[in-house]
Amino acid sequence: MSTRIALFGGVYNNYLALQAAIGMADAVGVDAKYCLGDIGAFGPYPNRSFPLLTDNDVICVQGNYDDSVGNDLSDCQCGYTDARDNHFAKISYDYTLANTNDANKAFLRSLPPEIELEIEGQRLLLCHGSPRRTNEFLWESTTPLHFVDMFLRERNLDLIAATHTGIKWQAKTAIGQFVNVGVLGRPENDGNTHVWFTLLDISSKGIQHRFCPVHYDYQRLGQEMEQEGLPEEFIKTLYSGWWTTCLEVLPQKERAAGCH
Amino acid sequence: MNGTTLNLSLSHLDELWFQVAGTRCNLSCHHCFISCSPHNNSFGFLPRQQIQDYLRQSVPLSVKGYYFTGGEPFLHPEMTDILIDTLQYGPASVLTNATVLKPEWLSRLEEAHTQSRYSLEFRVSIDGADATTNDPIRGHSTFDRALSGVKLLVDHGFLPIITATRTWNDSEDQLVLDQFIDVLREQGYEHPRIKLLPSLKLGAEEKRSGGYSDHQRITPEMMVGFDTSQLVCEHSRIVTDRGIHVCPILIESSDSLLGEDLETASQQPFKLSHGACFTCYQYGAICSNVAVSNAPAGKAT
Q1: Does the predicted interface ipTM exceed a cut of 0.90?
Q2: Optimal mutation site among A65, A253, A254, interface B, most CBs of chain B within 10 A
Q3: Which of B119, B173, B301 has the CB atom closest to A141's CB atom?
Q4: Which residue of B113, B121, B300 is in closest CB contact with A73?
Q5: CATH number of the domain to which A113 belongs
Q6: Which of B293, B298, B300 sits opposite A79 (nearest CB)?
Q7: Terminal Cα-to-Cα distance of chain A (whole angstroms)
Q8: N or C: which end of chain B has fewer CB within 10 A?
């Protein structure tokens, strides 16, 4: 017996990538689909992602953006500290907040901050940033394996899945594993235009992960962002695959892998 | 957090700091908050073996990252080896003035960094985007020497975080940043990382510009609804040759020494009674590479 689940990271209003990822997950056959939060941000037309999630039975965790938009808060709680990063984060957040309807805000408010699962005898935690903080950045190069083990041990888990950073990674530790599932919202600063989601194959023997590239019509998304007056810097990221904003939070290794 | 006594407990030991070079520095900056200099031996070097012991102890404590400061860390004869040791455990950050770096050290660190899963961050102190601003504070020709150090780091694949203590008006920040970007690009640092810091009115800086006034203190009222994770003592401790202190800023204060071992010092709360606590409150955990933020946002207006 084995169970396969699909894990989608931050959607960031990229409803075209979400649609493509749902199609891919259904095509390979999954027993359940989950989104780890941050449905809004960055992209255009915030309301377009919600019917895709609800009509396709995608079970969602609440990210920091979802908490902020759902509760009409003043900022996205992304956790940036640099002035330029915060400048662009504010543009993105103000647009998303102003263009998310009340029904969708109520949906965002209703989401749980985490989901614990027991599948085939394996214990999984789905969260947004980290098990202790929704907006904690767990980068591959700044997260010691013994730090991951603390959460695995405290919660008696076999696997933790998170998103928030925008860059996928996976590590096996002494007692379990951690998977950052990547994001659907924007490419991951590697010069490619595709985005990512993650499949987990879960059996009594263990959990196997597979990162899946999602190709979608990024040019259409870029045109729509332009129509909506979103920053040229965001659109450049879609077309180039390189991040142009929110860079100062990147640690040395992840920053050096980019070109800005 | 006890709102009436202002005693703050450690929530988790995220950052373990090492006063690796004690108070010994090749420079005598006029704003140094612990008055480091070539002749200040009030805190001594930490032996590599002692640091290795703390690194081992840090694993069951689930420490998230390691920071090295001084004085000038690279005056320590085993600094390169200490950083290489650390990269086996987790991410390492070293705060340096970049004036004494040697290519052979950086070649070894570059190799170790490439092989490690963890980031090695260099934070380079330069206190102005030109010698006219920097050198009166940090010493004659230190601007040019620091820039040479930055170039060496960049040549070895590192992207140093340039930290500048603000000695200008806040309104001039963007101008200073633009100047920094221009001068760093001339050194081949195409996309420089720059962090502006407030000054701490302690040590040499207290003599230079005056210390904290009595009203520059955290009050119980200020802590209501405040995100305590913004304070470095909420998630950090620092090892010196005297024991474990509450934070890198206050090591010269007698009440900062919390114990001789990590476990004891991690269990000791600290009273937020210093002027520097007020600066930390105002600006967030300025000592960290990226300040943490768990602050609940207010309602949109």
Answers
A1: yes
A2: A253
A3: B119
A4: B300
A5: 3.60.21.10
A6: B293
A7: 46
A8: C
Among chain B, residues having any CB pair with chain A shorter than 8 Å are 12, 58-60, 62-65, 89-91, 113, 117-121, 157-159, 173, 191, 193, 284, 289-301
Angstrom distance (rounded) from CA B253 to CA B199: 18
Per-residue pLDDT tens over the stretch A16-51 = 999 999 999 999 999 999 999 999 999 999 999 999
Spell out the alpha helix ranges (H) of B139-259.
142-155, 173-186, 203-209
Taking a C-beta distance cutoff of 8 angstroms, is the pair A60, A10 a contact? no
- DSSP of A165-214: SSS-EEEE-SS-EEEE---SSS--SSS---EEEEEEEEETTEEEEEEEEE
pLDDT tens figures, A233-251: 999 999 999 999 999 999 9
Q: Which domain holds residue A153?
A: 2-256
Query: Which residues are CB-contacts of B221 (< 8 A; sequence separation ≥ 6)?
Result: none
Report the chain A residue with the minimal C-alpha distance to residue B288.
A81
For the entire predicted model, the pTM comes to 0.94
Cβ of B290 and A248 within 8 Å?
Answer: yes
- As for how many domains chain A has, the answer is 1
CB of A28 within 8 Å of a chain B CB? The answer is no
Distance between CA atoms of residues A2 and B239, nearest Å: 49
Q: What is the dihedral of CA A177, A180, A181, A186, to 10 degrees?
A: -170
- Cα–Cα distance for residue pair A12/A243, rounded to 1 Å: 14
Nearest to A140 by CA among A168, A174, A160: A168
Distinct helix (H) and strand (E) counts, chain A: 9, 10
Mean pLDDT calculated for residue range B186-213:
86
DSSP string, B125-160: E--SSSHHHHHHHH-TTHHHHHHHHHHHHHHTT---
User: Which domains, and CATH codes, for chain B?
Assistant: 7-283 (3.20.20.70)
Name the amino acid, one letter, at A152. Answer: L
Nearest-Cα residue of chain A relative to residue B301: A74
